[in-house]
Amino acid sequence: MRIGDRERWQAERRLRASYLRGELSADTFEGRIAVALDAQHAHDLAPLARDLPSPLDRLRLALGRRARRGDGPALVAPAADAGARLVLGRSRSCDVRFVESTVSRCHAELLRVGDGWLLVDRASTNGTWVNGVRVTRTAVCDGDEIRLGTARVVLRT
Q1: Which residue in 24, 53, 92, 151 has a CA-CA distance of 20 to 30 Å to 16?
Q2: Could you give the CA distance from residue 124 to residue 101 in angstroms, rounded to a whole number?
Q3: Residue-by-residue DSSP string for 44-103
Q4: Which of these, 126, 145, 102, 139, lies nearest to 22 by C-alpha position?
């Protein structure tokens, strides 16, 4: 079934709102808007917002009830000296490799600082998130949920 202006407008509105909340990078937003404008059928619009938090996810975050926190695969940080680093991404050269297409080649890195770890986004396309909040640089600790693109892991130290 061909789509009308209303369906296209709804998809654009959701993408724009997600971009303004920092859930999409400018490049990702522009690319998805281009797909929305070129879409011929309703099923072409569905994947554009599939990886974005739903209104229910945002409500849970606002209320402090994260249903997914603590669930998911574990990323076990090795015992390391201060200054050690782990590169996270899709590239074979990364220390921790993800196979999801929403993860950038060199997406982020974990840096050992003192007794803890610092997570630094490396200008990734789809962002780095800790416990549902988009970050560029933040301290992380045991049990924190890290999301790179749509890939989710729980940090275990």
Answers
A1: 151
A2: 12
A3: GTGGGGTTSPPHHHHHHHHHT--TTTT-S-EEEPPP--TT-EEEEESSTTSSEE---TTS
A4: 126
pLDDT for the residue numbered 115: 85
Residue 156 has pLDDT above 70, yes or no: yes
Strand, coil or helix: 145? strand
Do 155 and 77 touch, CB atoms closer than 8 A? yes
Q: How many other CB atoms sit within 10 Å of the CB of residue 106?
A: 16
* pLDDT score, position 59: 66
pLDDT of residue 127: 93
Q: How many residues does the chain have?
A: 157
Best mean pLDDT range from 8-12, 22-26, 43-47, 86-90: 86-90
71-104, pLDDT tens digit by residue?
568 888 888 888 899 999 999 999 999 988 899 9
Two tokens, residue 137: 């640089």
Q: First vs last Cα of the chain: how many Å apart? A: 51
Could you give the angle at which helices 5-20 and 26-38 cross, rounded to 10 degrees?
180
| DSSP 3-state of 7 | helix
Find where tokens 């200054």 sit: 83
